[in-house]
Amino acid sequence: MEPRRGALFVVNIGAPLLIGLLLGEASAALVGGITGLLLSLADQEGGLCLRHIQAAP
User: Fold this and answer.
1) Cβ neighbours of 18 (radius 10 Å)
2) pLDDT at residue 10 greater than cutoff 90
């Protein structure tokens, strides 16, 4: 994983968790962290159109 992607991964997950916990909203922190994780993992493979074109035989 590139350092830039690694930093973005940490920010995408850590920022919602930190903000949610600071505001005392643990459930919002959890939802934000999971959403950040899903979006970070989706970004690793590129756009949906690009993935579909590469997967086609």
Assistant:
1) 13
2) no
Task: List all residues 6 or more positions away from 37 whose beta carbon is below 8 Å from its beta carbon.
Answer: 12, 13
Any idea which residue has 């830039």 for tokens? 4
The CA–CA distances, whole Å, from 45 to 5, 17, 22, 51 equal: 12, 24, 32, 7
CA atoms within 13 A on the CB side of 30: 3
- DSSP letters along 29-45, please? HHHHHHHHHHHHHHHHT
Count how many Cα atoms sit within 13 Å of the Cα of residue 35 in the half-sphere of its side chain. Answer: 10
Judge whether residue 52 has pLDDT over 90: no
CB 45 within 8 A of CB 51: yes
pTM to 2 decimal places: 0.63
